[in-house]
Amino acid sequence: MRHLFCGALAITLAGASLAQAALTANDPFNYTTGDLTGKNSGVGWAGAYTDTGNSTVIETAGLSYGGLPTTPGSVRTADGGAATTISFRTLSNTYGDGETETWVSFLGRRNGTTASNLFAGVSFYNTNGTATADGEVSFASSVNSATPVWRVLDLGGSTASESAVAITPNAVHFLVARIVWNVADPNLGGTGTSAVYLYVNPTAGQGLPAAASAGRNITMTNFNKIRFAGQNAIDYSFDDIRIGDTFADVAPFLAPNADFNNSGSVTIDDFNVLKSNFLTGTALAQGDANYDGKVDHADFFLWRTAFVTAGGSLEGLSLSIPEPSSAAIAGSLGLMAYGIGLVRRR
Asked: Would you indicate the residue range of the signal peptide (predicted)?
């Protein structure tokens, strides 16, 4: 597959937090459970969510990915029925009327082995309304293969460019889109006037990848509405929609943190937290130093590095991690051969 070029600008991000990022719109979906219709939080919005029949629904658990700052809560397209779920929301700003480019990001997950031939995704609509003719672009699942992939879908021309990134069951994907208004890219498919790029799973905090995962030239007017939809209530979850002017705005990054007990320093007590929750924990307070939603050997290495950097000594210590339940995990943890049992240095 040929490379898709990212365009003229590569932006380097060095550890920005959500508070530092200049977002123009954001919704972390930190709502109570129930229909998304009527929910009204976040920044950059002109009103609450509406629906056109069946609403998507809120779940208390959020999605997480790497060092991205997240909160509890996510939106799910499966509402327990069989009808298509659709939720719209109007933005405070109209994007594409004077901007050079607009950036969008969100988290997406295919829940289990839900259908692979139905649409699920995030779409953007212009100021004329929310009818089919008003659709501009979607970042969504493909619908024509046994294993779906993420794609850029031209809603006006009903054509798409697909990435090579499979949407595997229960895997959280970080999707970042860049819209370059009124500048077509000759390296992309499509005959539209604006270049749209999709980056699947870029690393927040390490700058934009040199090549996009997919891209397409699309004729776009502007947009001021978003839509979350799942055809026939296909089971996908989405979280943390962000819109901004740069990659840094929509890909904030939390540096790893091994101070699990929030004491102000990294100590042996933090190792005890990690040890108690090893392979079961999911949060920072349980030993998740890199915010990936699990407590594993990567978090141990981060604690060890922070502990030694802060002046701690491993001399006389024997650091034990509970035995894993599978040979695969045991193999990966072979890198941690520090003995059995935790013994404080006397």
From this structure: 1-21
> Token pair of 268, please?
């042996």
How many domains would you assign to the chain?
2
* 103 assigned to some structural domain: yes
Distance (Å, whole) CA 295 – CA 290:
9
For residue 159, pLDDT beyond 90: yes
pLDDT higher than 80, residue 8: no
- The DSSP bridge partners found for residue 109 are 172, 237
Same domain, 238 and 301: no
Q: What is the mean pLDDT of residues 86-94?
A: 98
Q: Which one is predicted more confidently, 259 or 255?
A: 259
| Per-residue confidence (pLDDT) for residue 33, from 0 to 100 | 96
Q: Would you state the torsion angle of the CA atoms of residues 130, 132, 135, 138, taken in this order, to the nearest 10 degrees?
A: 110
Residue 322 near residue 279, CB atoms below 8 Å: yes
Rg of the chain over Cα atoms, rounded to whole angstroms, equals 22
Question: Which tokens hold the place of 287?
Answer: 């030993």
Say yes or no to pLDDT of 260 above 90: yes
Q: Residue 48 is part of which domain span?
A: 4-250
Quick one: tokens of 146?
């046994």
150 and 26 share a domain? yes
From the number of C-beta atoms within 10 Å of its C-beta (0-12, 13-18, 19+), residue 158 rates as exposed
Say which DSSP state 338 is in: -
Strands, DSSP E only, in the chain? 4-5, 25-27, 34-35, 50-51, 57-59, 74-76, 85-95, 101-110, 120-125, 135-141, 149-154, 159-166, 172-180, 194-200, 211-212, 214-218, 223-230, 236-244
- Alpha-carbon dihedral sign for residues 166, 172, 174, 177: positive
Q: Identify the band that residue 255 occupies on the pLDDT scale cut at 50, 70 and 90.
A: confident
With a cut of 60, say whether residue 301 has pLDDT above it. yes
Give a yes or no: residue 38 inside a domain.
yes
Whether residues 100 and 223 fall in one domain:
yes
Same domain, 144 and 83: yes
Residue 317 and residue 179 share a domain: no
Domain membership of residue 25 (yes or no) is yes
Domain-embedded: residue 237: yes
Q: For position 322, what pLDDT does the model report? A: 62
